[in-house]
Design goal:
Elements: H1 10-15, H2 19-29, H3 34-41, H4 45-58, H5 64-74
């Protein structure tokens, strides 16, 4: 019998967020608006909203604020 070890972390298994989604939700946790995030990341606010909707779906959240709180609790993003 061969045993396969899973090397992904618990937070990676739970969320599976893309790097851009993580950037967006991190900036939400800092209180930034979609327009501000778009300016910082040099993408449109519509693209920001697209990424945030994906984050909200993946973290089963009804708001971007709740998604940011869940991301913090899961260790996806950190506050200094």
């Amino acid at each position: 019998m061969v045993t396969k070890f899973d090397t992904t972390t618990a937070s990676e298994q739970v969320h599976n967020l893309s790097p851009r989604e993580i950037q967006c939700i991190d900036l939400v946790s800092q209180g930034k608006s979609s327009w501000e995030i778009g300016t910082i990341l040099e993408i449109s606010r519509y693209t920001v909203d697209f990424h945030l909707k994906n984050v909200m779906r993946k973290l089963d959240s009804r708001s971007r604020t709740l998604a940011a709180v869940k991301a913090l609790k899961l260790g996806i993003i950190e506050r200094q």
